[in-house]
Amino acid sequence: MRKIERPPFIGATKDFEEILDELIAKKMFPVATEIDESSYPYWEKWKYLSGEWGLDPKRVWKVIKKKRSISHRTVNFHSGGRFTLRINTPSIMQQQLHELDLSLGGNLDASDIIPSEEKQRYLISSLMEEAIASSQLEGAATTRRLAKQMLESNRKPRNTGEQMIVNNYVAMQWIVQNKKTPITESSICQLHRLITKDTLADKQEEGAFRATDDVRIVDVQTGEVLHTPPRSEDLGQLMQAFCIFMNDGQKEEFFLHPISKAIILHFLIGYIHPFADGRTARALFYWYLIRKGYWLMEYMSVSRIILGSKAQYARAYQHTEKDENDLTYFVLYNLRCIQRSLEELKKYIARKNREKKSVLTLLRNTDYNERQIVLIEEILNEKKTVFTVTEVQHKFGVANQTARTDLEYLISRGILVARKSGRKVQFVLAEEGENKIMGKG
User: What is the mean pLDDT of the chain?
Assistant: First the structure.
């Protein structure tokens, strides 16, 4: 990844009016404003645009920084004022947050997006996907297919990479189970312990804040030190403040949107770097959003999107740090990732629903009769459906023997199994029944 240039120091803005008049005279101020509101570019982009406009880049940057300073808010998560974080809310951010609010949270009926009968299966699948992608981001060397086979079969991990994936899967399950639990330094350490089990060179580092200052975030290609975390002796105070911030325990001077705050928490853990490794940031991001009622996040893998844009992820971190801790860059990048993850989930569910409809159409060209196709459709819509001979008899207005024959044929095709319930015989979906219906078994 190419080295990122730090923006020029602005200093006094006494010539601001003069520069602004120059931009207005060249009809570039409205253009610059629209660009800033729609994409919030970093200094390097403004440098390029200024060249196209025939203007001095530093003078244009001075106007942009002045404009941003009028609307930026300060996020003082740490009472000691050890470092100041800033955030702006350009139009593009407000639009993305509004769209995500409509889709991810609160009052929407889950069945509007995820059919109720599919929720558990989608949840397990998404937790697996997030665990795999998150581990691959941290260096786990395995394919998605092999990793998913391991998780689905409950096979023991064979190497460190596979152990990382199992750990992340366990951690994601733990977050869902503990989403209402207050966040403490102890619970963050417990989460780290789950994520790092049997994967660190020093086992004593599992679930323990780092005790040294030899941690550096380095670009593996250039060797450039991208970030030097705070001293280990400050971690106790910093993480105590982090927990207060994450638990919404301090009064904010302005409304900080929960999705923006979750992304800031992600950034803070990377910035503070409380552990010897950096594997808890995305997990805490999920934890906060699920706690705040964004239930659909449980079904999404944001890490898979980040995995496909690792260079942009690193740049978002660096843009924030190099431009006076302006979190807007990092928040906007992550909002795009969340949006893409949501779109992928919707496409996946739509594809699965199309597959069901296609299967039902194909079944009409097989030796299944219409009654059996209706029963199969009910199974696809609700896998816990239970049939009895009497119910099928009355449902279709057929003889008892006809209903029995229909059900026994579905047993012979591996779709249903019979089980005793008191004196009754019930017919339920077989273990591989759905695969048989979909033609996969």
Answer: 84
